[in-house]
Specification:
Layout (H helix, E strand, L loop, with lengths): L2 H20 L1 H5 L5 E5 L5 H4 L15 H9 L8 H4 L14 E7 L6 E8 L4 E6 L17 E7 L2 E7 L4 E2 L6 E2 L4 E9 L2 E9 L8 E10 L33 H8 L3 H4 L5
Parallel strand pairs: 4-5
Antiparallel strand pairs: 1-2, 1-11, 2-3, 3-4, 5-6, 6-9, 7-8, 9-10, 10-11
Length: about 270
Amino acid sequence: MDQVRQTKIARLPSLILAAALSSGATFAQVNLGGVWQNQLDEDFPDRLAGPELGDYAGLPINAADRLRGETWDASLLTLPEYQCRVHPSDYASAFADIRIWEEYDRDTQNLVAIHLHHFAWGTERTIWMDGRPHPPEYALHTAMGFSTGKWEGDILTVTTDHLKEGWFRRNGLARSDRAVVTEHFIRHENGLTWVTVVNDPAYLVEPLYRSRDYVFSVAGQIAPYPCESVEEIIRPKEAIPHHLPGTNTFLKEYQAKHGIPEEAAMGGPE
């Protein structure tokens, strides 16, 4: 064997090692894939039965959003067009189990996207991981929005915009289509913490922070979520349930029931 060939063979392991180290960031990323079971240790009433009317405590809303809540009528949810309305991506984490999987480019094995399926309403969203830019402001807004992600150490950080109008709570507090949502997915062995930070220039005076916890399920499966709209209440087609400003007599019930001052119950910045 000539000297040149011996040198090339001798250098081969070091070249392989260098290539592996250069792509180490990819291999060091945490795998979030699998089915994650929803834990209800946080905000239990808010996440299942739903909050009481007039309960805006702890939410940094402004006067415009408070007015949205005061004029809201729960009968709105009986309208056929609202019955199967999906929860937006920044609120969907409140309810049920999720499945996460990764999509890789076949040739380069670079991570292209992370997908998330949520049981409630069968929603699916894509988190683009390939560095693509967000679309212009006039592009389509959807319930899931447009999401891009990046790894910050072991934490997946996601930025989402282009959201349709949604809500902060299921008692009338709206979230506008101008909101930008930042999410952090943090895995702790078999636990997953999902932190959501909402910045909404239309309805919030401060960012709104939420966190949800999940536990990894080895044998977990996500069931289908069929939804069919029906006529629950017979009413004129043009009727939209609502309260005119200052006429909603139910708002005081929450304050009286729990002995909470109006200033605290109606939300706002701390």
